[in-house]
């Protein structure tokens, strides 16, 4: 198992390299880079920047390429390109970026004057809170419910819970989040939960117990909103997995030996049926952590990685884009390795080294 884990860890390097190459190449063809963003802002500010970069208060006339059309001195454009590193060819910029990443230097945001790693560490608690709690609650609810539905397959309990699950799955996450705000966050009905943020304004003045309660008070609605779709998928996955195992010969043999139903269910079926559920853990975690975080963070005014990545993409803040992309990819690959380890923990019969051989 140690050799398998080592191979998987080594495989992270070319995988991340491939991700960075593809995205860096695509970015080269996207119009409206950071320099264009700055020039557009300068154009809207009139003569505030007149005289910048040795222009002596004179602005280049129209008719010249780039700077001439914008009415800005070419020296100013050249200075911007040099500051952002665009005076170098793309290959050199990419190799420099990889060398910096090898030293865990992700650069500095173009527009915030803050290092990328500091930005990520600042926003990480919000996204971790959403991802971990949503995934944990989804598994804690979905697995027992899915097992119960498999045992009660075809009964009224199975029918009405399936209907509720399908309705929950059909509701978009952002619409459910808005519904929660209207019902429970001071909308048209009740004001039970706060409208925005992860903590209250008087957080520093609260006791440890008060801080814990305040944190859960703020995180309840965002977690419920981000859990709804994963909850539905995991429940049906668990049910179908158990139904498939219940029909197998070893279950019939166990029952013929006189074992009680709970021992058959949790002593024999559980380990085999849970393999497919565990296999879906990385997809559930990554989906909640990354995919749904932007909408949930925006609706509940949470300043997390989702909003950071979106704002960086809009502003063409390339260091933040590539830095977060690298970190997200690394987290996803590591979670995949942890999923394989959970496979072995649930069923020691699995040996990835023999399967690869």
Automatic annotation (TrEMBL):
<feature type="transmembrane region" description="Helical">
    <location>
        <begin position="273"/>
        <end position="300"/>
    </location>
</feature>
<feature type="domain" description="ABC transmembrane type-1">
    <location>
        <begin position="124"/>
        <end position="343"/>
    </location>
</feature>
<keyword id="KW-0813">Transport</keyword>
<keyword id="KW-1003">Cell membrane</keyword>
<dbReference type="GO" id="GO:0042884">
    <property type="term" value="P:microcin transport"/>
</dbReference>
<dbReference type="Pfam" id="PF00528">
    <property type="entry name" value="BPD_transp_1"/>
</dbReference>
<dbReference type="GO" id="GO:0055085">
    <property type="term" value="P:transmembrane transport"/>
</dbReference>
<keyword id="KW-1133">Transmembrane helix</keyword>
<comment type="similarity">
    <text>Belongs to the binding-protein-dependent transport system permease family.</text>
</comment>
<feature type="transmembrane region" description="Helical">
    <location>
        <begin position="320"/>
        <end position="346"/>
    </location>
</feature>
<keyword id="KW-0472">Membrane</keyword>
<dbReference type="InterPro" id="IPR035906">
    <property type="entry name" value="MetI-like_sf"/>
</dbReference>
<keyword id="KW-0997">Cell inner membrane</keyword>
<feature type="transmembrane region" description="Helical">
    <location>
        <begin position="128"/>
        <end position="147"/>
    </location>
</feature>
<protein>
    <submittedName>
        <fullName>Microcin C ABC transporter permease YejB</fullName>
    </submittedName>
</protein>
<dbReference type="InterPro" id="IPR000515">
    <property type="entry name" value="MetI-like"/>
</dbReference>
<feature type="transmembrane region" description="Helical">
    <location>
        <begin position="215"/>
        <end position="238"/>
    </location>
</feature>
<feature type="transmembrane region" description="Helical">
    <location>
        <begin position="159"/>
        <end position="185"/>
    </location>
</feature>
<dbReference type="GO" id="GO:0005886">
    <property type="term" value="C:plasma membrane"/>
</dbReference>
<feature type="transmembrane region" description="Helical">
    <location>
        <begin position="9"/>
        <end position="30"/>
    </location>
</feature>
<keyword id="KW-0812">Transmembrane</keyword>
């Amino acid at each position: 198992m140690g050799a398998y884990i080592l191979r998987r860890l080594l495989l992270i390097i070319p995988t991340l390299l491939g991700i960075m190459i593809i995205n860096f190449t695509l970015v080269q063809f996207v119009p409206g880079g950071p320099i264009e963003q700055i020039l557009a802002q300068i154009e809207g500010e009139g003569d505030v920047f007149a005289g910048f970069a040795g222009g002596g208060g004179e602005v280049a006339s129209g008719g010249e390429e780039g700077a001439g059309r914008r009415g800005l001195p070419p020296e100013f454009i050249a200075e911007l390109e040099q500051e952002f590193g665009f005076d170098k060819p793309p290959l050199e910029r990419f190799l420099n970026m990889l060398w910096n990443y090898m030293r865990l230097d992700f650069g500095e945001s173009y527009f915030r004057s803050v290092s990328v790693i500091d930005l990520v560490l600042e926003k990480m608690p919000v996204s971790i809170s959403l991802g971990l709690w949503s995934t944990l609650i989804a598994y804690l609810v979905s697995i027992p419910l899915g097992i119960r539905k498999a045992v009660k397959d075809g009964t009224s309990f199975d029918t009405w819970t399936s209907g509720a699950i399908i309705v929950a799955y059909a509701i978009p996450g952002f619409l459910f989040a808005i519904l929660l705000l209207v019902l429970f966050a001071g909308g048209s009905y009740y004001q039970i939960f706060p409208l925005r943020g992860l903590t209250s304004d008087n957080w520093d003045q609260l006791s440890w117990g008060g801080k814990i309660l305040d944190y859960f008070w703020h995180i309840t609605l965002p977690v419920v909103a981000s859990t709804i779709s994963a909850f539905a998928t995991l429940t049906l996955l668990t049910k179908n997995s158990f139904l498939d195992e219940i029909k197998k010969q070893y279950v019939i043999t166990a029952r013929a030996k006189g074992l009680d139903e709970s021992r058959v269910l949790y002593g024999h079926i559980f380990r085999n049926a849970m393999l497919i559920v565990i296999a879906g853990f990385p997809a559930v975690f990554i989906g909640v952590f990354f995919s749904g975080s932007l909408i949930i963070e925006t609706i509940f005014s949470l300043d997390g990685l989702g909003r950071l990545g979106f704002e960086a993409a809009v502003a063409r803040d390339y260091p933040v884009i590539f830095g977060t992309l690298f970190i997200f990819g690394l987290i996803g690959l590591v979670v995949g390795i942890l999923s394989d380890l959970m496979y072995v923990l649930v069923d020691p019969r699995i040996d990835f080294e023999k399967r690869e051989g």
